[in-house]
Specification:
Helix content: 25-40%
Oligomer: single chain
CATH architecture of the largest domain: 3-Layer(aba) Sandwich
Bound molecules: nicotinamide-adenine-dinucleotide
Distance between the termini: 64 Å
Radius of gyration: 23 Å
Number of strands: 23
Strand content: 15-25%
CATH topology of the largest domain: Aldehyde Dehydrogenase, Chain A, domain 1
Strand order of the largest sheet: 15-16-17-14-13-19-20
CATH superfamily of the largest domain: Aldehyde Dehydrogenase, Chain A, domain 1
């Protein structure tokens, strides 16, 4: 397969003809050669998006007409769910169950939700005698959307759907590890009636390659980025040169707190999902597991036993719970953190090294790994590993648990298992985290703000928060001749 840029209505190779490869993390097989975008390609894509924004009709279309087209794109995603899910599974190593039943349906939901939100959201207006004051929400202009590999099309559309719904045009750059679904999505969007130039897709890398202009060109009006906290710094710096607003959804090191009054039939499986679903390659993962000491032995015995039973293997098999990690370099990073944990004094209670048996040797397979005996001050407990590795930390009191949870440079999410809802409310109010889940994990309502505190992010997206970011809210004051 060949993956090319979509610039305007043209599918193009890189301006210098260079390519890179996308490989299946399950067995290393070649999936596609991909255009390795140059800075010139990035500039061309911005020009195409600028032209489409200026010339219309997308930016001036009534929101309900945009919504009709976005629903048609969502219908196409639904109709091609299995095809998109298989592409995602092969490109990223995520399980087919997760891709087909969670992420691709969420792609369609992202489109439908923001299409309807933009068409139906109320605008404030304040009649005051013969002065009528109200707010307009014109689109910001050209949006650069830069997305990561861990939930490729779901996160790409979490950025592009609101940008499009509010009338912007977009240049999307998917992660180089996972370019396949973005290309297929763009084809489907054009077929479903999205006008040319409204969605442009370029492939490649950051720095002075294709992503350079996406963050530094003054013709870009908004940058929406999901990725690591380290890359976030580069993007914020580049954007500052033009005062370009940035929404940044970055890394996490979330605490998952289990109290002794938790229903363990809920807390154990949800805690397993919180760290091992998606192989821990999830920004929201509950990678610090804080367990009240009075229930620690019972909880851990069940947690380790159930984690040890998870099926690890070919992500195309519907029975698989954990697929491979994304690439060799990432596998080495995850493994190096387990080695570091050993040096820091950890007991490795489960897992700990790459799977090398014949069924797994060709892929980047790393098992569920449970570390005990470490404090919250260790590097393993403070840095984002982004793999199936959980650090277990004991605590005695609610205040102690909250202090440990909040003692992190990250502030993306938190999970809490207790049957004491007074305590749950108290803790949610004092938790330094963008999202708090109580007796559950991973559920979303797209109307709520999504984002992180500390080095986990800048700004919020979702519902009205996306509208504020992707538009230029404008105050209008109209003096009428006579009072109403
Ligand atoms: P990454 O930061 O390495 O890359 C993300 C994207 O940025 C890729 O498309 C990459 O090519 C691009 N990029 C890299 N350097 C760039 C530069 N200098 N200028 C412009 N673009 C550049 O992240 P990753 O490894 O792809 O993804 C994993 C990270 O993403 C983790 O830290 C994870 O926590 C985070 N993440 C956060 C959220 C969230 O919602 N907060 C969601 C998913 C993933």
């Amino acid at each position: 397969m060949k993956v090319r840029h979509l610039i305007g209505k043209e599918w193009t190779d890189a301006s210098d003809g260079r390519e890179f490869e996308s490989r299946d993390p399950h067995d290393g097989s070649l999936l596609a050669t991909v255009a390795r975008g140059t800075a010139e390609d990035g500039l061309d894509a911005i020009s195409a998006a600028r032209k489409a924004f200026t010339e219309g009709p997308w930016s001036t279309m009534p929101p309900k007409e945009r919504a009709r087209i976005m629903h048609a794109v969502a219908d196409a995603v639904d109709a091609h769910r299995d095809e998109l899910a298989l592409l995602e599974t092969r490109d990223s190593g995520k399980t087919i169950t997760q891709a087909a039943h969670a992420e691709i349906p969420r792609v369609a939901l992202n489109l439908r939700f923001f299409a309807d939100y933009a068409a139906m959201a109320a605008n404030e207006s304040y009649p005051d005698g013969n002065l009528l004051s109200y707010t307009l929400y014109p689109p910001a202009g050209v949006v650069s959307a830069i997305s990561p590999w861990n939930a490729p099309l779901m996160l790409a559309t979490w950025k592009t759907a609101p940008a499009l719904a509010f009338g912007n045009t977009v240049v999307l750059k998917p992660a180089p590890q996972t370019p396949l679904t973005a290309q297929r999505f763009a084809e489907l969007a054009l077929e479903a009636g999205l006008p040319e130039g409204v969605l442009n897709v370029v492939h490649g890398f950051g720095g002075d390659e294709v992503a350079g202009p996406l963050t530094s060109d003054p013709r870009v009006d908004r940058i929406t980025f999901t990725g690591s906290s380290a890359t976030g710094i580069h993007i914020l710096r580049a954007a500052a040169a033009n005062h370009t607003p940035v929404s940044a959804e970055l890394g996490g090191k979330s605490a998952n707190i289990v109290f002794s009054d938790a229903d363990l039939d809920v807390a154990v499986p949800q805690s397993i999902r919180a760290i091992f679903a998606g192989n821990g390659q999830v920004c929201l993962a509950g990678s610090r597991l804080l367990v009240q000491n009075s229930v620690r032995d019972e909880f851990l015995a069940r947690f380790i036993a159930e984690a040890g039973e998870l099926t690890i293997g070919d992500p195309k098999d519907p029975a698989t719970f954990l697929g491979p990690l994304i690439e060799q370099r990432h596998l080495e990073k995850v493994h190096s953190y387990v080695e570091l944990a050993r040096l820091e004094g950890a007991d490795v209670a489960l897992g700990g090294s790459r799977l090398t048996d014949p069924a797994h040797a060709a892929g980047f397979y790393f098992p569920p790994t449970v570390l005990t005996g470490l404090g919250n001050h260790t590097r393993v407990a403070r840095e984002e590993i982004f793999g199936p590795v959980v650090t277990v930390i004991g605590f005695d009191t609610e205040d102690e648990a909250l202090a440990i949870a909040n003692d992190s440079p990250y502030g993306l999410a938190g999970m809490l298992f207790t049957q004491n809802l007074d305590r749950a409310h108290r803790m949610a109010a004092r938790w330094r985290a963008g999202t708090v889940w109580i007796n559950t994990f991973f559920e979303r309502d797209l109307r709520l703000p999504f984002g992180g505190e500390g080095i986990s992010g800048v700004g919020r997206e979702g519902g009205q928060y996306s509208r504020e970011f992707f538009t230029e809210p404008r105050a209008v004051m109209l003096r009428l001749k006579s009072p109403r």
